[in-house]
Amino acid sequence: MSNIRTIKDINPCLQKELTGLYPREEINALCSVIIKTVFNVPGLHLLYSSDEHVTRKQAESILSIAAELKAGKPLQYILGETSFYNCTIKVSPGVLIPRPETEELADMIIRENRNFTGKILDIGTGSGCIAIALAVNLPGSQVTGTDISDAALKTAEENARLNGVAVTFIKNDMSYPFLKPLMNTGILVSNPPYVRGSEKRFMAPNVLDHEPHSALFVPDNDPLVFYKDLLAIAEKVLIPGGKIYCEINEAMGKAAAELMKSYNLSAVIVKDINGKDRFVKATRFRPAST
After folding, report:
1. Over pLDDT 90: what percentage of the chain?
2. Cβ partners under 8 Å of residue 244, min gap 6
3. What is the pTM of this model?
């Protein structure tokens, strides 16, 4: 790493340091984010062949990041932020790192509700990434995010300020005072914990060692426990014709859809970009006219 003298030296040095821990393509992607962060520049494609000098402080910063990556710490936690649907989202070990699948969820909601002007409720908001992306891209809406974690709510509030949007964040419970301002919600969205405990053995160490297990895992004997909770809320606050969008475990799509149908909802399973059952979207039936 001491051979970093110009920007074009960074990628070869990172490849040398991280090969065997990450695939070459992933190292290239990590390098792009590191360059953008350390040098605060958007034009990454111009920098790989650049002869621009790297200062000692910048080289030391890159060295420090590489050392933490070698120790298994996710890059997003190292940098303290990530990008989500063109929003800058601060993250720390108290909140889950937003995934590309969750970005797909936000995109689906935005594409299907361009002119929406009602209430949106994001249950289990975490970093606030979904709520903030929706507030930015559906400016006529009134967005509320809920979570049981004080640390997550603090991060979400910071992220709303950072992205210049008005999102209300409240601590989640099932009491009436909590539900009252959420009445007449038009869109309910959630990315709840859905990884079964038995699936831990398939997960990468950098996830298991650093990300909050409470935001990831559910018991094998009740894997839809959080969907039951959010549907109990939806039953009280969602308007007739209101929509629900949820991210799901790819193995639980049929079960999640059947659960939603039991709550007087239509339900459709939607595949992600990789062809896996990843989302369920549903609509609350309108009462029959008399």
Report:
1. 64
2. 187, 188, 189, 190, 230, 231, 234, 238, 260, 265, 280, 281, 282, 283, 284
3. 0.89
